[in-house]
Amino acid sequence: MKPLTPSAVLADVIGNKEVPRTEIIKKIWDYIKKNKLQDQKNKRMINADAKLKALFAGKAQISMFDLAKIVGKNVS
C-alpha cells in the first residue's frame, strides 16, 4: 500500500512519518487501547481524549465504523 502523509492533527496521535492506511488504523487502535478509550458498555464506540477530540472534529464519542472516514479526511 502507498504511504500517506498524516495531517497535523492525526500526526499528534500516530506520529508524522508517512505510513500506509492500514498502519494508520492500527496505530490509532493502539493509542485507543493504550489509553483505555474504548467505551466499556458499547465496545463499538470510541471515547475521545484531548488529542482524539481534535481528530474527531470536536465530537466526544464516535463509532469505530466512522474511523475510516476520519482517517480519509486527515491524510494526503
UniProtKB/TrEMBL annotation:
Coiled-coil annotated spans: none
Domain DM2: 1-76
CDD domains: SWIB-MDM2_like (cd10567)
Protein name: DM2 domain-containing protein
Organism from which the protein derives: Terrimonas ginsenosidimutans
